[in-house]
Amino acid sequence: MIAATLAYDKRLDKEILTLIKSSKIDKKLNLSIKDITFYNFLADKILMICVIRHGVPYSLFDKIQNFTPFTENYWADLLDVSTKTLQRYRQDDKSFRPIQSEKIIEMAEVTKIGLEVFGDIDKLKLWLNTPSFALGKIKPIELLKDSYGKELVIGELTRINYGIFV
Fold first, then answer.
1. Do the domain assignments include residue 166?
2. Cβ within 8 Å of residue 41, ≥6 positions away
3. Where is the Antitoxin Xre-like helix-turn-helix domain (predicted)?
């Protein structure tokens, strides 16, 4: 499982690097390309903002979608589009609007933190789909549809990581 995750990270690294170079964000922010990985990207809020404003291309979304525990139907609902629209985005390798791009990046961020806490995508998926007492007996996945809910979920993941259980 770890080898597969690391191999997938390499594809995410390559895709984010390609986007940053092709959009010239690296020049705008005076970034050193050799230091950019997907995980570094998720730790750099300014870089994330630039990518969100540029728009996440379907090619990056596809890799993020495969990195996360979320289904295509969940993504369609989250991005407020139909699954058919997602298929058209794939065919045209279209970029998402900034509001959708922000959701995509947020879900990548939640997944990264969740994997750091649970170490396994299946355990993260189980936690996301189990009502949480600390989150008002709501399933964490239900809170991810808006930014305030996402912050609550990240806060709870952080508390779990530090062994603080409410």
1. no
2. 16, 20, 47, 48, 51
3. 52-108
